[in-house]
Amino acid sequence: METKEKITTFETIHLSFRYIFDDFKKTLQYSFFPVLTITLLFNFLYFLNIKSVATNFTLIIILSLISLVITSAAQRIHLDILKGIKLNHSLISIFEIRNLKYFFLIILLTFFFIFPILVKIYLDTNSINNFFGFDNKFLIFFLIITGFVIFKFFDVLPRLSLTSIISFKLNNYSGKIFLIFLLITIIFSIPTFLIFNIQLYFITNHSDVFRILKPLFDFISFYISYLNYLVFFAGLSYLYKNYN
Q1: Nearest Cα to 15, choosing from 185, 180, 186?
Q2: How far, rounded to the nearest angstrom, does the alpha carbon of residue 150 sit from its chain's CA centroid?
Q3: Which of 43, 67, 159, 207 is the most exposed place for a label (fewest CB within 10 A)?
Q4: How many of the other CB atoms lie within 10 Å of CB of 236?
């Protein structure tokens, strides 16, 4: 049992990046079609918005489909790292019951995390400046508390992939989960920032060219974000494997 507690945050990040990038050709093979699907869905939503026919329902449906594609990839990674089960990524798999459960959990955890922001939006909308005697802007600091709580339950995700059962248990490595999430996001923010500035250059100086290249930029941006998710879910898998 002692060896299960030796993995460090940086070792976890190293293993996660190695898992995704050691055989990058294979990673591209598995991720190209999902990212292409996400890009097409996003641009379809963008097109509907330009034509002023997009509704809140349309937004929810398309964002849900994009999230289901990502959660399906997360489960493939969990099963590969934890049980050595190789799964192909297909659009059909995103509608499997286990993936729908995974999607539900992501929504639930995200809702709990951003709950202070939702409360602040409600208070601002109704011109309520105080919350139990405090300025409502301090509600943002409650994100630290809600974030700490959800990371304590975050291994419900790999456990669901293994058992198909939603089982909430407190873990003792929530700090490491938070750190790998933060550090991996910071690392991937560098290429994201680079792509953003290239797009900004084209928008400012070559707007006609940008309209043609926009789908390509979207594809690259989504690819970076997608790889970000893959590395994080790999890290979560390695932590879960080490502590359970």
Answers
A1: 180
A2: 14
A3: 207
A4: 25
